Amino acid sequence: MSDNPVPTGDDLDNDDIALLADIGEYAHDEDKPERAERVASLIARDYVTCSHQDMAALGAKFMLTRKGQDTMSARGASLNEA
Question: What is the rounded CA–CA span in Å between residue 46 and residue 80?
């Protein structure tokens, strides 16, 4: 049994998953006012973090954490599908 189980994302709803997909694809609409609270929640739960400087230069303010990436993979959600 692994010390680092793959997160299942059981605490996420469909809107959270859609937002994670947008962030993972650098869709650049994650900072819309209606999404700000949801992004803050995802950051607090360690699914999303602020982008590194090089990604921010491309316009991406946020990026998936390893937990966010693993959750999307475990759910079978391709970033191109969500």
Answer: 22
- Cα angle 47, 56, 53 (rounded to 5 degrees) comes to 95
The Cα-based distances of 68 to 6, 13, 48, 53 in angstroms read: 10, 13, 6, 19
Pairwise CA distance, residues 11 & 64, whole Å: 16
Task: Report, as an integer, the average pLDDT of 6-28.
Answer: 81
Nearest to 9 by CA among 81, 27, 19: 19
Confidence of residue 7 (pLDDT cuts 50, 70, 90): low
What is the value of pTM for the model shown?
A: 0.73
Domain limits of the chain?
Answer: 14-71
1 Cβ contact list (under 8 Å, min separation 6) = none
